[in-house]
Design brief:
This protein is α+β, with helices and mostly antiparallel strands and about 270 residues long. It has five helices and eleven strands; from the N terminus they run ααββαββββαββαβββ. Helix content is about 40%, strand content about 30%.
């Protein structure tokens, strides 16, 4: 009888361990896939902007071809708000599409990403900003140089980052039973399957104050490039609290970092 009890306990432990390993493996693979898909999209943005910057640098930003080049930057990317050429003083000189033409002539040199590229003359990605177009967005910028290597300004691609990440997240979540979220290193959530959390800060918003495990895990995510953890939080769209398992990866691009999270909640 004693042997049967020990065997049953051992069997339960093996089954539990196997289930836990399967969950962790699924989450880790999902986080890696999310990183891969998003990075692929970001590299595509880099290729497009680098090519556009090269063409504008050769022709000169005042050339009529500049508008055509900026129009082509947007092709195939529904999440792009606009593309622009910004001069070496931080002034928007040319912008497409035409509905944002009233932004031409606006000085945006006060924006952190603009300050950075004017100083470093290296590609930059902004944090989530309130753009002059009145939209919460993330901006990608690549420097423009003349054939004589003179710095002329930069090419900019303004994006609805929530839409861009969602395009990647839907692919990763399908068939895996996982959900995803993405945050900046300052704790600002720029994407969540539960859209009501987008724009909240994990470390300061009142919603999270009653869930110290989640906040502590978030601080681990900021410090550690990858890992796994468990926390309790609300089921999306309800007031019921459940345990959630998560795995994360840190994505680096243009000098910025995002924390990419795949999570699975108890049923």
């Amino acid at each position: 009888m004693k042997r049967l009890v020990i065997t049953a306990v051992a069997l339960f432990f093996i089954m539990y361990s196997g289930t836990l390993w399967a969950v962790e493996d699924n989450l880790d693979k999902s986080a890696r896939n999310l990183e891969s898909v998003i990075m692929g999209m970001l590299k595509g943005i880099d290729r497009t902007l680098t090519k556009s910057a090269s063409v504008i640098g050769k022709l000169g930003p005042s050339n009529l071809e500049t508008r055509r080049v900026l129009k082509e930057c947007r092709l195939g990317r529904s999440y792009v708000i606009d593309c622009a050429f910004i001069d070496d003083k931080g002034v928007i000189k040319v912008i497409e599409p035409d509905r944002y033409k009233n932004s031409e002539g606006i000085d945006i040199s006060y924006q952190d990403a603009v300050k950075e590229i004017l100083k470093t003359r290296e590609p930059v990605m902004s944090d989530l900003i309130d753009s002059v177009e009145g939209i919460k967005s993330v901006d990608f910028k690549v420097p423009v140089f003349s054939e004589k290597k003179e710095f002329l300004g930069c090419v900019s691609m303004l994006t609805r980052i929530e839409e861009m990440i969602k395009f990647a997240a839907v692919q990763v979540e399908a068939g895996r039973g996982v959900k995803t979220w993405v945050m900046q290193k300052d704790g600002l959530i720029i994407y969540e399957t539960d859209h009501s959390q987008i724009g909240l800060n994990l470390f300061s918003d009142p919603l999270y104050k009653g869930y110290p495990e989640l906040v502590e895990l978030g601080r681990r995510m900021v410090k550690e490039a990858s890992g796994q953890g468990t926390y309790t939080f609300l089921i999306n769209g309800t007031q019921k609290v459940v345990r959630k398992d998560a795995a994360w990866r840190t994505l680096s691009f243009y000098g910025k970092e995002w924390v990419l999270v795949a999570y699975q909640q108890e049923k």
